[in-house]
Amino acid sequence: MSDRYDAIVLISFGGPRVPDDVMPFLRNVTKGRGIPEERLAEVAEHYLHFDGASPINEQTEDLYEALVQGLANSGHPMPVYAGNRNWTPFIADAFVRAHADGHRRLLAVVTSPYACYSSCRQYLEDIERALAETRLDSVLAVDKVRQFFNHPGFIAPWVRGLEEAVVSLREEVEDLKAEQIEVLFCAHSLPVGYESSSGPKDGRGVYVAQHLEVARLVLAEMAQRGGLELPNWQLVFQSRSGPPQMPWLVPDVNDAIAEIDTSSRKAVITVPISFLSDNMEVIWDLDNEAAATSRDLGFAFRRVPTPGTAPVFISALVEMIGERQGWVEGRCSVGKFDAWFDACPPGCCTPERTGSPRIVRVRTSGEESMTGASRVSVSREAMN
After folding, report:
1. Residue 352: what pLDDT?
2. How far apart are CA 12 and CA 82, in angstroms?
3. What sign does the dihedral 41-188-313-206 (CA atoms) show?
């Protein structure tokens, strides 16, 4: 059986490379959203603190190389191209290069594992726009790999990272008990309308539910692997960028840290489960701001690394490509959600931009934290 796709395109968010890129990049990201120029200038300082270069560029290049090698190691090597939504090289550049090299059917691997407008539908719209702008829409067919929040290869790096964070904290804090650690699973905040419309029409509001499921899977697997249970955890949000009058998902990670009981907790661990790489939002919002908030309150602090190029995660991406190519049987997933759609149903993740939705504050008690533990079936091999 011949392959169904003849090339892969890796699509990432993109980021500036030099100081002069920063403001044009931010204007491109926030186009049409009414973000004040002074707010953009404030965010620009985060990038300028790192000489105007976003770490996401090097991390995407590393992911690209790892994916190329992973496909080769699988026995199914394929050409891989790379393009970004918001900065060079753009998605359109990748399509032009692929077409010039003779490819006609592309499979997109998008660096976003969850369902919502910003994480999925907007990427699909950008793919359509790039095809139209390059006038390749009649000669290039582009499909997208499914969302993979519940693939065991995505869960595994978080488990290992959280385990290592606990070990590291216990080396710093004498006699640290599991119940003295507050674990904050960090999701990228969204406008409330985007959350309520995430997913298909018959199951709206899956963005938060998917993040909660990842948190539960990670905690349950930790307990199953080594008997370590972390009862005190919550889902929090970070990296809000919208106008102040628009309701966004809360609590913000720093607000959540400020509310932690200092008499019963000694340490904070942040787990940025929305992100695949240690991008600017991770290293600024967590390594800088959340770390400072924690230490000001007397908490020891750790941040779990993102999956990046962890071999088990690269294997998961290769496996999902194999699903679409026909050289992998079945569709691997773990937990209460089935493997996500290969093709989104009509109306999936359409943003609700009208009205004044209420603020949604997400809280999850320790009693709820192990819900679904009996359904966890991540293999030992995947975790090691």
Report:
1. 59
2. 8
3. negative
Maximum alpha-carbon separation in the chain: 65
Contacts (Cβ under 8 Å, ≥6 apart) of 143:
5, 106, 107, 108, 324, 342, 343
Q: Which amino acid is it at 217?
A: L
What is the H or E stretch that residue 1 is in? none
Cβ neighbours of 165 (radius 10 Å): 21
Angle at 147 between CA 143 and CA 148, to 5 degrees: 130
CATH architecture label of 7-148+310-325 = 3-Layer(aba) Sandwich (3.40)
Residues paired with 188 in a beta bridge: 238
Sheet holding 300-303, edge to edge: 233-238, 181-188, 267-271, 300-303
Its CATH architecture, for the domain 152-307+346-383, is 3-Layer(aba) Sandwich (3.40)
In the chain (384 residues long), the average pLDDT of successive 10-residue segments reads 81 96 92 83 91 95 98 98 96 98 98 94 95 97 97 98 98 98 97 91 85 98 93 96 84 98 98 97 97 98 98 98 95 96 87 42 37 28 34
In the chain, which residues fall in CATH 3.40.50.1400? 7-148+310-325, 152-307+346-383
What are 256-275's pLDDT values in tens digits?
A: 999 999 999 999 999 999 99
